[in-house]
Amino acid sequence: MSVEFQAWTTVSPARRVAGEVRVPGDKSISHRYAILAALAEGVTEIRGYAPGADCASTLACLAQLGVEVRRLEAPPDNRRQHSGPVIQIIGRGLRGLQAPERPLDAGNSGTALRMLAGVVSAHPFETTLTGDQSLRRRPMTRIVRPLRRMGAHVEAVDGRPPLVVRGGDLSPIDYTPETASAQVKTAILLAGLQTPGRTTVREVAATRDHTERALRTFGARVDADGLVIRLEGKQPLRGRAVLVPGDVSSATFWAVAAAALPGSEITLDEVGLNPSRTAIVGVLERMGARVALVPHDSRTPGEPVGRVRVAHGSLLPVEIGGEEVPGLIDELPALAALATFGGALRVTGAGELRTKESDRITALVSGLRALGADVDELPDGFEVRGSRPLAGGTANACDDHRLAMAFAIAALGARAPVVIQGADAADVSYPGFFATLESLCEF
Ligand code: S3P
After folding, report:
1. C-alpha 111 to ligand 1 mean position (Å)
2. pLDDT digits (tens, 9 = 90+) for 382-412
3. Which of 44, 53, 233, 395 is most buried (CB neighbours < 10 A)?
C-alpha cells in the first residue's frame, strides 16, 4: 500500500531539553470556531488558528460550501510563534450554506469530516465527503446512525468514507453514542443546532467539551448536566472575535521530552487548559515529572489558558484505563514515548486508538519495537517498560502525525540516531515541529 507522507527525518539523541515554547493553536478548537463562524450571522475573526493541514482542510471545505474565508496578515503585537494569519469568516447563518460543486476533501482529518457531515445533514442538498487514504479507512457508522435517525440520507462505503449526505429538514433526537467521542457528539449537536426542537446527547464517558463552550461563545445556550448535553435548535449564532489557545496535545510532546531527560525543563506559554483536556497533567505527575501550572486571566472567552512548566523527575510505573482514556486519547503515543526512558506505562480500555489516523496500537508498538523498546501490544492498549535505553534505528510513522512526533521524542533517549519514515505527517497538526525540537535540544 502506498503512503501519503514520505519524508525521512533523522533525530539524534539529546543530553537534555530546555527552553520556552508557544505551540500552535488548538486543532479541535480551531475546527469548531471555523464551523460555527460559518453558521453564524456576521463576521468572525479567529486569531491563533491552528496552522496544520487538518484545519486548512476545514477552511477549504467551508469555502466549497459558499463561505467567504479570508486570511488577513497577523497584527504585529501577536506574539505567538506559529500564530499565522487572522482568519476572517463571513457567516452565512444557520442552514445558509450552498451546495458544493465537488466532493469535500477533509484530507487527513476525521474531525473535519465528521463535524461537516453533521452540518450538511441539515442542508437541502447532496454533499460527498471524503479524505486521504487514512481517513477513508476510518469508521463512520458512529455518525451515520444518529444522522440517519435525525432524517438525513447518509450513505457510506462499508461504514467508511466517502460519505454521501442528502440533507434537509431534520428531527431532533435523544441519543446515546456507543463510543465516547467528541466528534460524534459534535456532529449530532451541529445537526441539532439547525433543527427545531431539543437535541440531547448522552455520553458514555466525558469527552472534550470545546463544542459546548464554542456554542456559548457564539451566543447559543447549551445545557450540560454531567454526561447529558441538551441543545435547543434554531438558536442564531453571532459572529465575533475569538482567540485559539495553544494546543495542549501538541504541547504534550515538549512536556514529555522535559519529563524524560534528566536536567530538562520546558515552559509552555499560552497553552489551553480546558479541564476536559488536561488529564495529561495528572498523568505526567504520576509518572514522576514535576509540573507547575499558572492559569492566565482569561483572554479567551470559554477556553482557559495558562503557562505550564515541566521538569524531569525519576520515572515511575503508571497504569491508565477506563474512563480516564477519552481525556487522554491523543496524548497516549507521547506517554508511550516517555515510558521508554524509565518507569513503565500500561494502557487498557483504549481500543479507540485503533480507529485513529493509523491503528495507533499496532503502529505505535511496531515503531517503538523497531527502535529496541521493551513493549507489548494488548487488544485494547499497550505496555511499555523503560527497562533499557532504545538502540536507535528506523520507525515508520504510518501516515500518523502523532506517531511521527512520539517517535521523535523517544529518539532523544536512544543510543544512536533514529530515522523517522513519514516524518512530514507532523505537519497535519504541528508544522515546524522538527525545527522547534532542534532548538530545544542540547546534544
Ligand atoms: C477530537 C476528538 C477526539 C480526538 C481527535 C479530535 C475533536 O476524537 O482524538 O484528535 O476535536 O473532537 P474522538 O472524539 O473521536 O475520540
Report:
1. 6
2. 999 999 999 999 999 999 999 999 999 999 9
3. 395
103: preceding bond cis by omega (within 30 degrees): no
Rounded to whole angstroms, the maximal C-alpha distance in the chain is 61
Which amino acid appears at position 211 of this protein? T
Work out the average pLDDT over 310-333.
97
Residue 76 has pLDDT above 80, yes or no: no
Q: Say which amino acid occupies 48.
A: G
- Work out the pLDDT band at 302, boundaries 50, 70, 90: confident
| Residues with Cβ within 8 Å of residue 276, at least 6 apart in sequence | 206, 207, 208, 209, 210, 327
Instruction: Give CA–CA dist 120/113, Å, rounded.
Output: 10
Q: Is the pTM of this model over 0.85?
A: yes
Which three cell numbers mark 307?
A: 503557562
Answer yes or no: 132 catalytic: no
pLDDT, position 3: 64
Residue tagged active-site, from 54, 105, 132, 330: 330
Please calculate the CA angle 185-26-189 and round it to the nearest 5 degrees: 20
Among protein residues, the one whose CA lies closest to atom 11 of ligand 1? 28
Burial 237-263 (b: 16+ CB within 10 A, else e): bebbebbbbbbbbbbbbbbbbbbbbee
Q: How far apart are CA 333 and CA 171, in angstroms?
A: 39
Q: Which of 94, 95, 93, 204 is nearest to 142 (CA)?
A: 204
Query: What is the residue with the minimal CA distance to atom 16 of ligand 1?
Result: 181
In the chain, the N- to C-terminal Cα span, in Å, equals 37
How many residues are present in the chain?
443
The residue behind cell 477506563 is 322
Average pLDDT, the chain: 96
Total Cβ atoms within 10 A of residue 291:
18
